[in-house]
């Protein structure tokens, strides 16, 4: 029998690499032998997730203190991803029954030990009803930007922070590639930290590749976008490859228009979720670029109103026909389904759109098109019983299948070329239908799909009876 002492280190490392997502096994491996430990620790410390308690008290221990006790220089070099959730810099005072100002001196100690990161996420506690708790102190914000500069992190996710000095990213973070600033309020951190930090200057210039635009973060992104236009900026939006949009406000769409205009030659993927906002084609003042390869859109659907969002889609697709790189179109229609619906009537208002859309995508103007995926996303709905409102949590599978078949029958050209798939989804009101649909495509699931109580996707056969129960 071979023992670890005589096995080549490369074989031991390969075996441990196969356990990269099995934490308990990695912990055991780290205790087996000193030859197992470094590789095991590489995976164990690759992602550090610190979740703060609901109320961080002024007499309590900082959640990071235990980690800092064991974090040596060699262990810190293993950290690639840092996720800090439920964070609040201010602390709860039991005597005063309120949050009091605090300057976090522990978190910067972790920042100082980090080397090269692949991603960083900071999310504040959204359940604290205190305006002061969605802010960072000037010293912590400075330490945070300094860490982003020194670790050269390419992916940054900032959630619910009111006063983050986003403008500094343009001057000190040319390495940023992916940015998700779902920040709160309308402030942009102006005046809370120096306009420039005392960091070594660099001739390096970088470009963002992916940006996520939320309604709550549009002001921050606009501020950052304006700063990138200055001569001293080291970051640009002009080479974006992917834009993801959530929301339909004028400010969001104006920002999208600027990004698309600047990155028309590089943009490959555009994802837009209108959410529960009323779609207004008048604010959609941008043209899809010809280099676009993937177009994913989600809208609320109402069977008794004109589908202006789909009229806009047809015009947008028609404009790029003939010189199109489009390979994939994904559409998600979110609606409520009542068992007694007349399924033919449900799509009557879509006759004109369906015919135009079907011809546009099969007439040769989009020669690279491989797949058109349409998802009908059914969510819970309310109905009146006397003076009470009740919610339906069970949806009949047969009804889902009937609606899918009716829509598919109105797109015969795409179906005949084998490029069309129409599926139903059943999700809760809390789930993002477009992201669920993207998971369905990635996992190759067929037929109807619902999100189970465990959060996993479950494929259903639409030809059988029964119902789908919702969370």
Structural features:
two-stranded antiparallel sheet, 14-stranded mixed beta sheet, 471 residues, alpha/beta
N- and C-termini, Cα separation: 52 Å
Radius of gyration: 26 Å
Oligomer: single chain
Helical proportion, percent range: 25-40%
Strand content: 15-25%
Return residue spans where pLDDT drops below 50 for at least 5 consecutive residues. 185-191, 382-392
Which strand order spans the largest sheet, edge to edge or round the barrel? 1-2-5-6-7-9-11-12-13-14-15-19-20-21
Structural class: alpha/beta
Counting DSSP E segments of at least 2 residues, the number of strands comes to 22
Summed over residues and divided by their number, the pLDDT gives a mean of 81
* General form: globular
DSSP helical segment count: 16
Query: The biggest beta sheet, please?
Result: 14 strands, mixed
Organism: Hypsizygus marmoreus (White beech mushroom)
Protein name: F-box domain-containing protein
Describe, in plain words, how this protein is organized in 3D.
This is F-box domain-containing protein. InterPro entries: LRR_dom_sf. 30% of the residues lie in helices and 23% in strands. Helix 2 packs antiparallel against helix 3, helix 6 (107-113) runs parallel beside helix 7 and helix 11 (308-319) packs parallel to helix 13. The protein has 16 helices and 22 strands. It is α/β, with parallel strands linked by helices and 471 residues long. The protein has helices spanning 9-17, 23-32, 37-44, 65-70, 73-76, 107-113, 138-151, 168-172, 218-228, 250-262, 308-319, 343-346, 351-360, 397-409, 412-416, 433-443, and strands at 47-51, 81-87, 91-93, 98-100, 119-124, 155-159, 178-182, 206-207, 210-214, 235-236, 242-246, 269-273, 294-300, 328-335, 371-378, 381-385, 388-392, 394-396, 420-426, 448-451, 457-460, 467-469. Among the domains are: 1-44; 238-471, no CATH class. The strands form five sheets. Strands 1-2-5-6-7-9-11-12-13-14-15-19-20-21 form a 14-stranded mixed sheet, with helices on both faces. It has a two-stranded antiparallel sheet with strand order 3-4. It starts with 8 loop residues before the first helix and ends with a strand. The longest helix has 14 residues, at 138-151.
